[in-house]
Amino acid sequence: MKGLFLVEPVVALYAFSSFLIYPLVQQYVYRRLWQELTNTTYPVSDNTSRCATNGSNHSSYHEEVQRQASLFSLYTELFSTIPSLVVTLMLVAYSDRGGRKITIIMPLIGTLIYTLAFLTVSYFELNIYLLIGSSLLSSLFGGLGTFLGGCFAYIADLCEDGRQKTLRMAGLDMMIGLLAGVASISTGYFLRAAGFNWPFLTSALCQCLILLYAIFILEETVKKTPADAIILDDAPQPSALNQMTSGVYRMLTGASRRCKTVLVLLMLIFASFSFAYVGGITLMTLYELNEPLCWTEILIGYGSALSTTVFLISFVGVFGFTYCGVPQLLIVLIGILSVASGMVLVAFAKTTLLMFIVRVPMLLSIMPFPVLRSMMSKIISKSEQGALFAFLSFLDSLTSNVSAAVFNSVYAATVAWYPGFIFLLSAGLCVIPLFFLGVVGVIGVDVAEEVKKPEEDAVEDQNDNSPLIS
């Protein structure tokens, strides 16, 4: 059976299975902490506001549970960050020699372990702090950064044209938003009708299906040397760790000074924007559970679905702007301003209607990511795409995990006097990528022709079956 060069189904089903349980994770932890801290049953109601009129004692309960829930998220991020970063950097860089599929399959296994752990804790009502251990275990297989880094490198292998590469990378983001939106809408109704166990089980079954597709159907884009091939050179072959280091070194040194400057600035824009955006987004559900919104699981599902539509709208935005010939730096600028304006409005949203409306300005917030990836990919030679996306995945995972930890700790400290402060902080941090974007605009981005191409023959002579660690 001939394989397919279609990674989009993997991304789509992964998004569906992940966002089927993502809104439930914080809700499950929140409800368990409520029961443990208050010794009462969590208040479930069909009303849009469960807690607005229950007195000051009820308000103090919510403040304490909010604080403990944010600290729980902080501990989870701290324990899983370093293993995930190391594995991401090594696997995606190793994919230049060992193939892209390993960067897709390994995170899928880790996600399946994490989902099964949640199902076990929920079904047997075990201690919720076991979930921190499961997060650590799953991070040893890589994380979302590893998965997306492998998928984007896979697309880069298939696309020669710059416009095609930009649109197909934006298409991956669109698939994430489309399927995540469907999953988020169904989550609230699924939870109300069947409890927590069935959504976790459904997600695990979807992930098993993705694994089968990735292993047996998805075709490899990196051609590896046969295992029984005769190696004429008896010199020891470099490990993936050495390949990763040398790949990143060549990527940052094998070009003109202007080219390297632009590449570093684009990476700083990518990392600083990811830090500001992810930090605010990760606390949306917790903020909606707090007073005065006090959303039910149904409303949280709709809110999560509306948030994930940014992937779809951002794809349409990238496609439309690219088709009309809008400069890529301007597309990035629009996306950053979209996040900054939306976060400011979220900070002052105190009603359900406003909380839905403030998501509208953020509908273009994903546009900078595929555009920046495409811009950097065009600067780097084809033999260094894996090193580039390994480093980008490392930056993405690092900024996302550190951002979640920092923002959760700040939220725990400020929730008692002003919960919306965290979103003002997110908007304020958008000034940093805007500054770097201005510097790139002054320097100019037409540097692709200056890239120094490495000797491809030297790359091909390396053994594709070299060990992951020497």
Detailed description of the structure:
It is a single chain. The protein is mainly α. The chain folds into 2 domains: 1-41 and 63-222, MFS general substrate transporter like domains (Growth Hormone, Chain: A, Up-down Bundle), CATH 1.20.1250; 245-452, MFS general substrate transporter like domains (Growth Hormone, Chain: A, Up-down Bundle), CATH 1.20.1250.20. It is built from 18 helices and no strands. It is globular and about 65 Å long.
Describe the secondary-structure layout:
Layout: H1 8-38, H2 55-98, H3 101-124, H4 130-139, H5 144-158, H6 162-194, H7 197-216, H8 240-253, H9 257-281, H10 284-289, H11 297-323, H12 328-347, H13 352-357, H14 368-379, H15 385-414, H16 421-429, H17 431-443, H18 456-460
Subcellular location: Membrane
Family: Belongs to the major facilitator superfamily. SLC46A family.
Main location: membrane
Sum this structure up briefly.
This protein is mostly helical and 470 residues long. The protein is built from 18 helices and no strands.
Say what the CATH topology of the largest domain is: Growth Hormone, Chain: A
Can you tell me the CATH architecture of the largest domain? Up-down Bundle
The total number of structural domains is 2
β-sheet strand percentage: under 5%
CATH class of the largest domain: Mainly Alpha
Written as H for each helix and E for each strand, in order along the chain, the element string is HHHHHHHHHHHHHHHHHH
Mean pLDDT: 83
**β-strand number:** 0
Corresponding CATH superfamily of the largest domain: MFS general substrate transporter like domains
Helical fraction equals: over 70%
Low-confidence parts, pLDDT < 50 over ≥5 residues?
A: 226-237, 452-470
Radius of gyration (CA) equals 23 Å
Terminal CA distance reads 35 Å
Alpha plus pi helix count: 18
Query: Describe the biggest sheet?
Result: none
**Shape, per Cα inertia axes:** globular
